[in-house]
Design brief:
By secondary structure, the protein is α/β, with parallel strands linked by helices. The protein contains 6 helices and 5 strands. The strands form 2 sheets. It has a 3-stranded parallel beta sheet, sandwiched between helices. A two-stranded antiparallel ribbon has the order 4-5.
Length: about 140
């Protein structure tokens, strides 16, 4: 229920954020990730964090909050400093210090880009490889 336009105004980012209001194709999304120097995903309650996997698969480094399954994929992790219970659904959300995020991003941007190293972190998620594993699990589950 976020109002992205209001957040852009609130944080003084008018004219600095492109907020596309349409679904992007995989190719369009990959072009955008590939054009970035880094992807930042510092979410309070992310589950898996698809933007982390998508960014890494395009060779773009990641700075991510240390809450969620995406941490296992790699990238520079920012530790949470607290947690809060939020919304009427009792969602546990992580809290971060902006300074910690800025330092992590600064360190990432100072490193020499190594796109192949970033891609390697998520190579195991390639659908061709996952399909083989899923078939093994399915067959095992059926007792064959």
């Amino acid at each position: 229920y976020w109002n992205l336009d209001a957040l852009i105004v609130e944080y003084g980012l008018v004219g600095r954020v492109i907020n596309e209001r349409r679904a992007l194709t995989d190719r369009e999304l990959a072009m955008r990730y590939s054009a970035c120097d880094a992807t930042v995903l510092v979410s309070g309650g992310e589950g898996f964090g698809y933007p982390v996997a998508e960014s890494l698969s395009c060779g773009t480094p990641v700075v991510a909050g240390g809450y969620g399954a995406h941490v296992e994929l790699g990238g520079r992790v920012v530790r949470r400093v607290a947690e809060v219970i939020d919304t009427n659904h009792n969602v546990r959300r992580a809290v971060y210090r902006a300074e910690d995020v800025a330092v992590a991003l600064g360190q990432t941007l100072l490193e020499e880009p190594e796109p192949e190293r970033e891609v390697e972190k998520v190579r195991h998620l390639d659908m061709k490889l996952l399909g083989v594993e899923w078939k093994k699990w399915l067959v095992k589950g059926l007792g064959r």
